[in-house]
């Protein structure tokens, strides 16, 4: 029997946190709940309970109706069903290529239920402030999501169903994000002020920090109390493991992060260590691009951080240079062995050495039967890291060493031109002010949601 959770606002009534934490822990650990009769197995293999004597070999007459949904939570009369949880969970599993263990699914299921409760509270609080999202606006956002998958809304509907989810699940999430964002703009943003003196102070610090490191950081923030800190930390570690196994950081941030940046995949933008909480700044300074760290204890919970990129403050980054390239490639016939591929690659490399500038690339390519393709305005940063390091040190007219595989063939890139990255300019006062306002709104939004939870009564049956 699934627990039924009723969440009702109650001014001045405290939340029964202990009971909620015990239930969540029992769900994660897979332990039995009170009220479930103990089972024993009789000599014939039948299962006996305190009141039933069931045969071990039984036949089901009829079938269950999958359209009959049992409530997992009731939030101010709004029912969250097991199907709602399953469909939202399916989105996460899809984002991870379906590679989620059964044990991890159960942990995620608990977190998804918590997120759905928060989402419902946010929608209800928005409605209480006369904020209701027009279905047409939700559909427009849904169409943009479908377009990101290069599908029409109808095609995307079908795709979601094949993955075990539904259009309604994504539309509900879109509604929650729009409603909460609009509520924050009405109830919080107008009361957040950043003075010109504060902005000037940031500009001065930027100029003083010229040449120092700054990072593009992704964050997943999970709130926690002393009572459930161990459980939330365990959930955070499992999220890290899933991401390390190929899961999408942005997808996990969108589903689980309780920061307002969840809507943009947890992207904090470019920040310097001094702009981060001390705990996060210390971790970021020790990380390389592409690494993830956590769970890191912070005020009110834990954070996971992902270093998406790194650069120097107010300093041109050579990886922002634009290149003009010629690509010469030779494919291997089906059935080519590794030895044959190595021999052909060696011959290809020897021919490439004859190239003296891009003017000869087409001639040499034609002689050895290579395909030649021009690529202009290629940002060095967008190329694979292995090629970035090589191309950084090549002059115009020089070629990379051959690279590729048996299936993809062998190829080289010839540098035909390079537009150096422009000098980095300090962000404008307006940009700095907007970022500072966003950070303060984000902080108050966390407090707002915390208060919504605190002013709720949660009953378990």
UniProtKB/TrEMBL annotation:
It holds the Pfam family Rotamase. GO terms for molecular function: peptidyl-prolyl cis-trans isomerase activity. PROSITE patterns: PPIC_PPIASE_2. Signal peptide: none annotated. The keyword Signal applies. InterPro entries: OMP_Chaperone_SurA, PPIase_dom_sf, PPIase_PpiC, SurA_N, Trigger_fact/SurA_dom_sf. Keywords: Chaperone, Isomerase, Periplasm, Rotamase, Signal. Residues 212-309 form the PpiC domain. It comes from the Bacteria. This is Parvulin-like PPIase. It comes from Sphingobium ummariense RL-3.
């Amino acid at each position: 029997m699934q627990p039924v959770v009723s969440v009702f606002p109650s001014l001045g009534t405290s939340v029964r946190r202990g009971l909620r934490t015990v239930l969540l822990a029992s769900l994660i650990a897979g332990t039995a709940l009170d009220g479930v009769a103990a089972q024993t197995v009789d000599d014939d293999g039948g299962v006996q309970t305190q009141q039933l004597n069931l045969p071990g070999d039984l036949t089901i007459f009829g079938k269950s109706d999958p359209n009959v949904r049992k409530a997992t939570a009731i939030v101010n009369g709004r029912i969250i069903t097991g199907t709602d949880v399953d469909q939202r969970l399916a989105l996460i599993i899809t984002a991870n290529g379906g590679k989620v263990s059964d044990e991890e699914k159960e942990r995620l299921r608990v977190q998804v239920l918590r997120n759905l409760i928060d989402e419902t509270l946010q929608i209800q609080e928005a409605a209480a402030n006369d904020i209701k999202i027009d279905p047409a606006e939700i559909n427009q956002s849904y169409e943009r999501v479908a377009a990101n998958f290069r599908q029409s809304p109808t095609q995307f509907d079908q795709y979601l169903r094949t993955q075990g989810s539904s259009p309604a699940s994504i539309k509900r999430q879109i509604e929650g994000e729009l409603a909460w964002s609009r509520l924050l703009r009405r109830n919080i943003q107008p009361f957040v002020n950043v003075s010109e003196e504060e902005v000037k102070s940031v500009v001065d610090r930027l100029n003083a920090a010229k040449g120092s490191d700054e990072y593009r950081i992704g964050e997943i923030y999970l709130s926690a109390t002393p009572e459930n800190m161990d459980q939330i930390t365990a959930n955070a570690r499992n999220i890290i493991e899933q991401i390390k196994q190929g899961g999408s950081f942005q997808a996990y941030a969108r589903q689980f992060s309780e920061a307002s940046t969840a809507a943009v995949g947890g992207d904090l933008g470019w920040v310097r260590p001094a702009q981060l909480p001390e705990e996060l700044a210390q971790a970021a300074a020790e990380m390389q691009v592409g690494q993830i760290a956590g769970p890191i204890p912070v005020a009110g919970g834990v954070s996971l951080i992902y270093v998406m990129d790194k650069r120097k403050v107010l300093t041109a980054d050579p990886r922002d240079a634009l290149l003009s390239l010629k690509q010469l490639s030779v494919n291997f016939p089906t059935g080519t062995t590794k030895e044959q591929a190595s021999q052909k690659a060696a011959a290809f490399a020897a021919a490439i050495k004859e190239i003296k500038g891009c003017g000869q690339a087409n001639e040499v390519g034609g002689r050895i039967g290579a395909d030649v393709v021009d690529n202009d305005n290629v940002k060095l940063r967008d190329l694979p890291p292995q090629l970035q390091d090589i191309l950084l040190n090549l002059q115009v007219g020089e070629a990379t060493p051959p690279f590729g595989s048996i299936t993809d063939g062998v190829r080289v890139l010839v540098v035909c031109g390079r537009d150096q990255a422009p000098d980095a300019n300090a962000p404008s006062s307006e940009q700095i002010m907007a970022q500072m306002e966003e950070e303060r709104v984000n902080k108050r939004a966390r407090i707002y949601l915390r208060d919504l939870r605190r002013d709720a009564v949660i009953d378990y049956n």
